[in-house]
UniProtKB/TrEMBL annotation:
The chain crosses the membrane at residues 39-64, 76-96, 149-171, 177-197, 259-284. This is ABC transporter ATP-binding protein/permease. Residues 377-615 form the ABC transporter domain. It comes from the Bacteria. Residues 40-322 form the ABC transmembrane type-1 domain. It is a multi-pass membrane protein. GO terms for molecular function: ATP binding. InterPro entries: AAA+_ATPase (IPR003593), ABC1_TM_dom (IPR011527), ABC1_TM_sf (IPR036640), ABC_transporter-like_ATP-bd (IPR003439), ABC_transporter-like_CS (IPR017871), P-loop_NTPase (IPR027417), Type_1_exporter (IPR039421). Keywords: ATP-binding, Membrane, Nucleotide-binding, Transmembrane, Transmembrane helix. It is found in: Cell membrane.
């Protein structure tokens, strides 16, 4: 996880490339496009409402210079009625705007969340190795909420305020240009201050949102690892880690608040000073008889009507910046290439990027490409290095050449950390080899799409992962078209039928988050049932019986033997009992397959294998 800090927890936003908030926000267009008609109508309605508010000072001018000056009560009532109607119209228009955007924007948020979730499912495992779950969670929740709020509020109001300030400025200049110039004097300095604010706030927002992601990771790990935390009494250290992050987040939030207070202060003070100066000048002009009282009232009412649009600009810019940061964070995930497509071209590129001289990789590949691969599961000159491994380290797997014939079961044996799990992970294309080729019944794995691979290959890992669903749903995940009879057969193979039937609602019983309401052995048996339910052509089992007691292991092995007889299987084995399920055994050592043969032949001829099987090698772990 060393890279996580670099890739996903960018707590130093100065490392980030300079970005334009507008360019970032424009990337939202494809999602906002379907509701563009509503968005534009809502913006138009809001502009209209704002312009209505600017008519109010003009009615006031008419009222003061007309009915009030002429002491005409009928006119004054009429003026009052006009003002009431205008106020009502403004309120109704703003209400209409809100109604227009609320529902479609909830839809935009849902569509973006769905797109993110779908994409995350399709991303390679190497992506998930690098990214912490908290960073993904915060992008799918808080960041998307920020985006919905931006589309609902700041996006419209930046436009509305801009138009209001423009129209108001023209009205001010038209009413009394000299006073208008006094009022508009702060516009330029405010624009400069706002652009400085925007740059600073953008960095602060990025830092905060990344820290929120880190915090989510800690909370999630604490919840999932609550048994370990309690078991080892790690409450205090966990709480310390949490407190450290919350303090860092608090510091960043305070910085944002300080910046906001600063721009809010400037946006309030400078216009207030200008209004004060205009009031003094205007009063002097009224006293000199150069200006009517009605014009001064209208002028000042217009100026006051412009106060909120000017003051709120800092706040709207802050929200827009947070939305731009949220957009960047969202697209950082969405821009990652998925692995649906066949990877043959990628393999060629990756091979060139490895430490192995290009001609070596090509040499290893060449025969495999020239001759069609035989049926079964074939590894030809396969090389693999984890993407985040140090660049000067040798590949974890080198020149793996192995042929598992159709219907054959091959056990894979090797010391801890020798790369057995990694080798098996290449078959369902959780990772792609950095060189060489794997073929399934003569078809190059790298030319198969994800769906095709899933249809051919099933896996059960040493660490069984279950989902918060029913026992049956967990098992049936292994075969889309599986029937009730397949389900029963899979349970029998995994010796899971007894305990599943004894659950309160049988197969329909919820197994709890990650299946934690079941024992380790029960989870492992359900995972095994999931692997065999779809009658896969190729079966990959990574030490699937490790959590079972000796008696259950013997029963599962007996049933598994029948399944293995009809499929081509690669089984990672640590114990002789599992090895005996296999027709032949491959010994993985130093990143290579150093021996292939029957269990007894290897025991006789290979001291390393004999040591591993005797359990002495395990002591070296
Ligand atoms: N996602 C990863 N990124 C980088 N290195 C990894 C990753 N997963 C495993 N490794 C490294 O690859 C090596 C082989 O790991 P692997 O899990 O394949 O071994 P194994 O033979 O299955 O071990 P065991 O028998 O203990 O299960 C280890 O040194 C491990 O640290």
């Amino acid at each position: 996880m060393a890279d996580t800090a670099q890739t996903t927890t960018r707590t130093d936003p100065t490392d980030l490339p300079q970005r334009s908030a507008v360019r970032s926000l424009l990337r939202l267009w494809p999602f906002a496009r379907p509701v563009r008609a509503r968005l534009f109508t809502a913006a138009f309605v809001a502009v209209l409402a704002s312009c209505v508010s600017l008519v109010i000072p003009l009615v006031l001018k008419w009222l003061v210079d007309g009915p009030v000056a002429e002491r005409d009560p009928g006119g004054a009532w009429l003026g009052g009625a006009y003002l009431l109607l205008l106020g009502l119209a403004e309120a109704l228009l703003f209400g209409l705007r809100r109604w227009l955007v609320a529902r479609p924007l909830a839809g935009v948020e849902a569509a973006m969340r769905e797109a993110l979730y779908r994409h995350v499912q399709r991303l390679p495992v190497s992506f998930h190795d690098r990214w912490s779950s908290g960073q993904l969670l915060s992008r799918g929740t808080t960041d998307l909420q920020l985006l919905r709020m931006f589309l609902a509020f700041p996006l419209t109001f930046l436009l509305v305020n801009g138009v209001t300030i423009l129209v108001g400025g023209v009205l001010l200049l038209a009413q009394r240009w000299s006073l208008g110039l006094v009022l508009l004097a702060p516009v330029l300095p405010l624009m400069v201050l706002c652009s400085v604010f925007e740059a600073k706030y953008g960095r602060a927002a990025r830092r905060t949102q990344d820290q929120l992601g880190d915090l989510t990771t800690v909370v999630e790990e604490s919840v999932l690892g609550i048994r370990i935390i309690k078991g080892f009494g790690r409450h205090r250290s966990q709480a310390d880690a949490f407190r450290k992050l919350t303090r860092a987040l608090r510091t960043s939030e305070l910085r944002k608040a300080r910046l906001l207070a600063w721009i809010w202060g400037c946006n309030t003070t400078l216009p207030e000073l200008a209004i004060g100066a205009a009031l003094v000048l205007g009063t002097l002009q009224v006293a000199d008889g150069a200006l009517s009282a009605g014009t001064l009232v209208a002028f000042l009412s217009t100026a006051l009507a412009l106060r909120w649009p000017v003051e709120s600009i800092g706040f709207l810019l802050a929200m827009s910046n947070e939305a731009a940061t949220a957009t960047d964070r969202y697209f950082e995930v969405l821009d990652e290439p998925a692995v649906d497509a066949p990877a043959r071209a990628a393999v060629a590129v990756d091979a060139a990027a490895t430490d192995t001289p290009a001609q070596d990789a090509t040499a290893a590949d060449a025969p495999a490409r020239a001759a069609p691969a035989p049926p079964g599961l074939v590894f030809s000159g396969v090389q693999f290095r984890y993407p985040d491994a140090p660049p000067d380290s040798p590949p974890l797997l080198r020149d793996i050449t192995l042929h598992i014939r159709p219907g054959e079961t091959m056990a894979l044996v090797g010391a801890t950390g020798s790369g057995k799990t990694t080798l098996t992970a290449l078959v369902p294309r959780l990772y792609d080899p950095t060189a060489g080729r794997i073929s399934l019944d003569g078809r190059d794995l790298a030319t198969l799409g994800r769906e095709e691979v899933r249809a051919l290959v099933a896996v059960a890992f040493e660490e069984p992962t279950l989902f918060s669903a029913t026992a049956a749903e967990n098992v049936l995940m292994g075969g889309e078209d599986a029937q009730e009879s397949d389900f029963r057969r899979a349970l029998e193979v995994a010796q899971a039928d007894g305990f599943v039937d004894a659950l309160p609602e049988g197969g329909a019983t919820q197994v709890g988050e990650q299946g934690l309401s079941l024992s380790g052995g029960q989870r492992q048996r359900l995972a095994l049932a999931r692997a065999v339910v779809g009658r896969p052509r190729f079966l990959i089992l990574d030490d699937p019986l490790s959590a079972l007691d000796v008696h259950t292991e013997a029963l599962v092995e007996a049933a598994l033997r029948q399944v293995l007889a009809t499929t081509t299987a690669l089984v990672v084995a640590h114990r002789p009992s599992t090895v005996l399920l296999a027709d032949r055994v491959a010994l993985l050592s130093g990143g290579r397959i150093t021996a292939v043969g029957t269990h007894h032949a290897l025991l006789r001829d290979h001291p390393e294998y004999a040591t591993l099987m005797s359990g002495e090698g395990e002591g070296a772990r």
